[in-house]
Amino acid sequence: MDTSKNLNFFTAKKSIDKGRKHFHMMIKPIGAVCNLNCTYCYYLEKMNIYKDKTDMPNKFRMSDSILEEYTKVYIKSQPIENPRVVFAWQGGEATMLGIDFFRKAIKFQNKYSDGRRIENTLQTNGMLIDEEWGKFLSENNFLVGISIDGPKNIHNYYRKNIGGKGSYDRVMQSIYILNKYKVQFNTMSVVSNITAKDPVKVYRFLKSLGTTWLQFSPIQERRATDDNVDLKLVANDYEGEAKVTKESVRPKEWGNFLIKIFDEWVRNDVGKIFIKEFDAALEAWCGFMPSSCIHSKYCGDGLIIEHNGDVYSCDHHVYPQYKLGNILETDLLDMANSDKQKEFGHNKYETLSKKCLSCDYLTACYGECPKHRFNKTKEGEDQAYLCEGYYAFYEHIAPYMHVMRTLKKIGKAPAEIMDLIKLQEKEEQKKK
Prior knowledge:
There is one protein chain. By secondary structure, this protein is an alpha/beta fold. The protein is 36% helix and 14% strand. Strands 9-6-5-4-3-2-1-10-11-12 form a ten-stranded mixed beta sheet. Helix 2 links the parallel strand 2 and strand 3. The longest helix is centred in the last third of the chain and has 23 residues. The N terminus is likely disordered.
């Protein structure tokens, strides 16, 4: 999950003509080790890349030496004019490392900060957050992303522990602790074939948790039919036979999911609740490059580092062919600026199909993440699996986006669209 602090249209300043001046990294300090066994998870099997690691989770643990080296070189790699450096802790489940690991991390951050403002974000499944964690996260100003898919029956359908029991009750306990200690948190909800069936119910439930920033991540994976491959959830460049997983949301379902939530949001929550897909769309309609890498023209500035120091092009591309090197062997800045990474980033746009390039909503979508371009157009070119859903969503929201853009241009808040909609619907009711 992108847990950058409320990066939405209302604060975005980046011009469509200006690229990002720095790169960002996710840290996977425990690799893919997790205390849940979610059926749809695309990361659990990444342990197969490191087959020689037995004795989990002890072998899948970032050493103090790698942690210190990474902290030092990552801070140093950021442009001096950027006073804010964000460390984004991900998993697997990073809290399995314990609080002492993160105390060391903060110690190293203070040692090498060089006057920068250091911020930390943590994505967690919420299975280990207790009173001690609540105090620690609050005292150190962590922004937490907590994974919860919706109400109990929806969340527990796929998000189960190793024993096969649902995780909802424990996650809700963690949310209570986060609220108790006033820890700022966002929600990350995986949208599966189950979640997509009741979008408004999911949305209203998430709002009730006390957060104002929601992220929806659609499951769209393919499983190789060849049992001999190490990574069965394959990349888009896989040439063998693969089938879309049963847990994946279907294109029409994804479009309907976004539309139903948007209709609720645009009437009640503009400027109060921030949703990544909606913010990115409004940025595009107003002439800004979407801040979401999924919908940016180019990508390549969101790298990840594994527990052993291996660096990959991005979180969705942890496959051997996308490995850039290891920080103990290669300079981090050299990897981020390498020709291989530049080509990776530019290919997001350069490999778009003719259908995408002629699409009315190109600048809002840019073909989504290349990892998920495994459908084919009539001409045989690669196309995003969820293209049909995204098109329906953009077509539906276009009139509202035009209004919010106009409001912004005349110096008014986009949130005023809510009053305009109420007025319009009142007039329509009178006519009836």
